[in-house]
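FAQ

Q: What does a record look like?
A: Structure on top, sequence underneath. For example:
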């Protein structure tokens, strides 16, 4: 049968571009551990949100004016007069917050399962460079609406560069493009936000994925996958054992793994669907998120002559802003804020534990990680509040805990006693298998009571049961304590 013109065209492209090889190497023939769990959704979700930011950003630039006199009005024009402009703007602003939520959870998964340890140090470094580039992208984009908080937030943050000895004043002048935040600053930030930093982000995403696929993905057990050696004819019992390890896949050459496509691509679709449900809920019902995603002061045009009552950056910068304010000296505060990010780059060399996953670490690391999460969330909250003496005191305490987690890591990770590692990846129950236990817990926390309706009909309805809720919480607390011991 003569091939069709479409087939001939496809063959012509494949002869000149290695599309099939790329697909096989990074999807169909890329084998990933078979025990990925909930925490492994966030890498693909980060890529999804990045695409959302690019697409909505391009649409916004079609009507945005990077001019100090027109910027705020152009944003209002997008919101009120452009067809679906309000939706595009909210998708972009909510997408920025969603991006940081996903990235922070993605980084937390690395802390949970030791994804930064040998041989994945370079993956972590590229990921941290991505985080820094994302912060720069968000900061520069934050100025573009030219609202009150955008203007004064940029004024405060840029002024921090002047605290750097020798080059500080010149550096802050170069960043602003003027002696104050002005039209020159807006144009400069627009160029960086729309062109320069996105190119860096794309490059770093490419390097991050290539480095990941070179050494392979980590897994919740933190075990290295082992390749099965094909050496001649096997005995019957050896063939049966290999068949079990391969998962009845005759093409599989790596133990305890499955092809990324179609297994994890289909699984990621479920995660994407759940994420889009929450994302759409925020966009349509609470896009400002009580002033955390879009500050109320940013709906007022920028006024250089009127300072807002309380200047604070958007929520994803507030942990580092709280560290800055917690240190009395301006230059030391800048060093502390920068050090809070730099210390993350050093994580692969600070952790001296012999195991990767938190499942097999000792109780010291688990307690330290819990304290770190509490300190990070607390610093994030304190960064949104006025700098009262009490808030400053708590910020200093949590700053010490934040840095203590990293700087003391070479000691407590070396001292703690880890659990023995299994020979193969452990089996984790699926949601369907966990469902009966969840249903039993729900039934225990509720009680059926007869309720009389207005028309006199009596119906049975479930109501919360205080004693049942207390019992379930107590069991969870006991299990959590055992996991930390």
């Amino acid at each position: 049968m003569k091939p069709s013109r479409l087939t001939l065209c496809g063959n012509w492209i494949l002869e000149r571009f290695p599309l099939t090889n790329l697909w096989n190497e990074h999807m169909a023939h890329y084998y990933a551990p078979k025990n990925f769990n909930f925490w492994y959704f966030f890498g693909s979700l980060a890529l999804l949100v990045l695409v959302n930011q690019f697409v909505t950003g391009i649409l916004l630039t079609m009507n945005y004016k990077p001019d100090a006199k027109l910027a705020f009005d152009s944003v209002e024009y997008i919101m009120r007069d452009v067809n679906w402009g309000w939706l595009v703007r909210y998708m972009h602003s909510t997408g920025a917050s969603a991006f940081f939520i996903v990235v922070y959870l993605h980084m937390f998964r690395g802390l949970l399962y030791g994804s930064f340890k040998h041989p994945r140090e370079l993956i972590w470094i590229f990921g941290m460079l991505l985080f820094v580039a994302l912060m720069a992208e968000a900061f520069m984009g934050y100025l573009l609406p030219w609202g009150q908080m955008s203007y004064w937030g940029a004024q405060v943050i840029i002024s921090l560069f002047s605290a750097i000895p020798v080059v500080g004043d010149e550096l802050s002048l170069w960043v602003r493009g003027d002696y104050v935040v002005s039209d020159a600053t807006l144009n400069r930030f627009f160029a960086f936000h729309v062109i320069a930093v996105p190119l860096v982000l794309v490059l770093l995403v490419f390097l991050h994925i290539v480095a990941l696929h070179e050494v392979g993905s980590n897994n919740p057990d933190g075990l290295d996958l082992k390749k099965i050696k094909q050496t001649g004819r096997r005995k019957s019992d050896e063939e049966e054992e290999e068949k079990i390890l391969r998962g009845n896949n005759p093409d599989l050459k790596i133990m305890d793994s499955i092809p990324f496509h179609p297994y994890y691509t289909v699984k990621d679709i479920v995660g994407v669907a759940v994420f889009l449900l929450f994302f759409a809920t925020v966009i349509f019902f609470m896009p400002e998120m009580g002033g955390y995603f879009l500050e109320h002061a940013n709906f007022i045009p920028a006024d250089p002559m009127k300072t807002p009552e309380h200047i604070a950056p958007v929520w994803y910068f507030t942990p580092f802003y709280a560290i800055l304010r917690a240190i009395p000296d301006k230059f030391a505060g800048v060093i502390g804020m920068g050090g809070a990010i730099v210390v993350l780059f050093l994580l692969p060399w600070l952790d001296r534990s012999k195991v990767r996953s938190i499942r097999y670490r000792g109780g010291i690391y688990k307690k330290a990680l819990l304290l770190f999460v509490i300190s990070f969330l607390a610093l994030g909250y304190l960064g949104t509040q006025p700098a009262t003496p009490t808030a400053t005191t708590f910020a200093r305490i949590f700053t010490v805990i934040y840095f203590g987690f990293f700087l003391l890591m070479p000691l407590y990770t070396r001292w703690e006693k880890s659990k023995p590692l299994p020979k193969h990846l452990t089996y984790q129950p699926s949601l369907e298998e966990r469902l009966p236990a969840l249903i039993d817990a729900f039934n225990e926390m509720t009680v059926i009571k007869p309720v009389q309706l207005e028309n006199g009909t009596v119906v049975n309805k479930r109501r919360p049961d205080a004693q049942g809720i207390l019992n379930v919480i107590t069991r969870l607390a006991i299990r959590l304590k055992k996991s930390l011991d």
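Q: Is there anything notable about this one?
A: Residues 183-215 form the longest helix (33 residues).
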